[in-house]
Amino acid sequence: MGEFMGKKSLYGFLAGMMVLTGCAGIMPSAGNLGNSADYASVQKAGGYKKLAKQLTKQEKDDLLWYLDAGLVSRYAQDFNQSIYFFDKSEGKIKKYDEEILAQKFLANTGAVLTNDTFMDYRPKIYEGIMVNTYKGMDFMNQQDVASARIEFNRALERQRRAKEFFAKEIEREKHEIKKEADKKLKKKNVSIDPHQRKQAKKTITNKKTEDVIMQKYSNLFAFKPYPDFVNPFASYMSGLYFISAGDYAKAADILKETYGMIKDDEPAAPYVKEDLKYALKAASSLHGAGKRRYVWIIFSDGEGPKKIEKRFNIPLFLVTNKVYYAGIALPSFKEGPRAYRYLSIKNKTTVVKTKQVASMDKVVKTEFKKRFPLIMTRAITRTVTQTVISYELQKRGGTIGGILGAVYSLTMNRADTRQWRMLPKDFQIARLELKEPSVEVFTPSNRKLVRLKLDPRKNHIVFVRIPKKNGEVIYSEVAF
């Protein structure tokens, strides 16, 4: 009778897991705006404007959805709507930040028995920085200098406190993962003997298992990262904003920091150095920036990296002293395509080319690399826990139990590939002196994309977005 009750409770546990699995299969993924057919349609002429008009009717209380909706609205030049959706995004990010800083319990750790897609999406530090940067750009487009100042200061502050915040976030989550895994292994309906529990704990921190995984990621991590959590574009754009606001001393300080970040790595470093000289000269002159006028081009190029699932077998030292191999699923990245290597900016006498000031590929992968040890620990913990449960099912339930265990492990072993999909691949910049009102923008093959009509009595910043080669050219302009 006791054996029957043991099997019954175990099968009941699996039934509950299968219900969850079924729900996971039919639920729309969070932030699916950036992965939908609508997203594909925005690549067509006028696609962003069409999609932006529908967004308020489709609004979802979801961080990733708000992030994508903010960018769609910006590209549609509906800056009020863009600010609205980015405000919603920032509200969710702020709530998460407050929970971490207050050391509140992280309920998300229940994914040890399921997978990370069952957790609420956790905002990344680079996302918060870009939300404030984009909001600052939106306010610049609206000529709201005071509100733009607030947003760029917030972006810079996020970068300053990122390292300290990240340390608190990771330490808290490490503690909760270990506590949750131990709790699950001690559950009455999946109980295991003390030796197996001891082996399971050893496996979770086994260096041999970690080494196998790290070898699989050696190519992905073979890049020189930016300093801790900084995004050179957010810094550069903040410096450019303070030039536009006439606060040249602060602009010089920020551009000096930006130049220090990229001087040995990014092609646009000489451009940033020239802007730094411009700000320093203006700050020390009674006449400010002088009589010369310029146009700055900010080119958002291509598509950012796409998160994908990576599956492979790892050694698990459990159940017996023999090595047991089990499949594990972890997130990885596939780099997105660029639209153009550069744009040529021309007037009657001069040609300049845009150059990369920041790579979003590198920004995203830099933070992922820092988070990866914890992602790996959580995945190993989940795999170990699920393997132990599967073993118990087979031992106590025979063939049927073994089949159920295999189905459970296969279904639940999924990587979390959610992300902010609409970010560009990189940001490129250029500056051209305005000597006449007409400025033209060309592709590397010398195909004209845009003719800009600008007031040569003013400075201008022109934001250009091209997601794909031969795709729609989206641009907006700010005069100061």
Question: What would you say this structure looks like, in words?
Answer:
There is one protein chain. This protein has 480 residues and is of the alpha+beta class. It has one domain. 53% of the residues lie in helices and 15% in strands. It is built from 13 helices and 11 strands. The protein has helices at 2-26, 37-41, 47-58, 63-75, 79-101, 125-141, 145-185, 194-204, 207-216, 232-244, 248-262, 269-284, 360-412; strands at residues 294-301, 306-316, 324-334, 344-346, 351-353, 355-359, 426-433, 438-442, 448-453, 460-466, 474-479. The strands form 3 sheets. A 5-stranded mixed sheet has the order 6-7-1-10-11. It has a 4-stranded antiparallel sheet with strand order 5-4-8-9, with no helix packed on it. A two-stranded antiparallel ribbon has the order 2-3. A hairpin with a 5-residue loop joins strand 8 (438-442) and strand 9. The longest helix is centred in the C-terminal third of the chain and has 53 residues, at 360-412. The chain is elongated. Residues 1-5 and 20-30 have low confidence and may be disordered.
Task: Write the topology of this structure.
Elements: H1 2-26, H2 37-41, H3 47-58, H4 63-75, H5 79-101, H6 125-141, H7 145-185, H8 194-204, H9 207-216, H10 232-244, H11 248-262, H12 269-284, E1 294-301, E2 306-316, E3 324-334, E4 344-346, E5 351-353, E6 355-359, H13 360-412, E7 426-433, E8 438-442, E9 448-453, E10 460-466, E11 474-479
Parallel strand pairs: 1-10
Antiparallel strand pairs: 1-7, 2-3, 4-5, 4-8, 6-7, 8-9, 10-11
